[in-house]
Amino acid sequence: MKAQYTTEVVEAPRRFEYWNDVVCRHCLQADSKLLGAPVFDGAMSVNSIGMLDMAIMSSPLHHWQRSAHHIRSNPDDDLWLAFMISGQAHLAQDGRQTRLQSGDMALYDGARPFEFALGPEKIYLTRLPRKSLLSRCPEAEHMTAQLIDTSRPGVMALRSMLEEASACEFNDAESAVRYSAALLDVLALSLAAPGSRTAAAEKNDLYKRVIAYLRENYADPQLNLHVLAAAHHVSERTLTRAFAQHNQTPMDVLRRVRLQASYRALTEGNAGNVTTAALDSGFSDLSHFSRVFRATFGCTPQSLLSH
After folding, report:
1. Over 90: is that where the pLDDT of 90 sits?
2. CA atoms within 13 A on the CB side of 190
């Protein structure tokens, strides 16, 4: 069921205040100011489509600014997609700015400050669950305030799906969720940079190279995420993402490699005592070593040594 709002139901002097309240309630908390028209006439409908929320807006030119204090007091982790059907807007975020005209689309991020001046005859503003979008396109959060390339595969389909979603009312929740998932898939395709398959392959190659490095250097007690990233000339975030594609973290894998090495040292007689097995495997805290060893193998290191 769509919620419908219009400033016509409010006396002229209070219309923009009413508009501010409606938009902040359904979209994002932000400061607003009127630009131009002395009397504000705006209309908005809001609809939920599975995982997505869509606001369809028409209004005179006005300005929104979401600042750090809004984010602290009213946090919102979702990204948004603006699709200008008719009209114009100016969007600025993360040091980038772009102008939207009829047919243009751009992302913005509710978790970071932005400015948005818009005067749409009609615009679709769609809330995109951050986790769902980034699982499909990790680069999306770095693509705010820039126009989506209309030559990209999927853009025409994305426009059509947004138009359909604006007019459609789904009879059951399952269909709505499936449609919203399909729309996110098409958006991710539209955002994916040429060569993104190569980028994914590079991440997989990075994962393999780091695994090999860990197996060679696990005995170094100074080995940590920062050292690993520096050794492979990538950021800690890039390294973490490469491992996340395999449902792992670099430090979990390092701990497992070290435990396996200590187990072999104890069972094959390569260590004269537990302390040597721990230190030679990269552990510097003996009590921690004993705890994780027992949790992993179901026995103490000492019990293996006695055999």
Report:
1. yes
2. 26
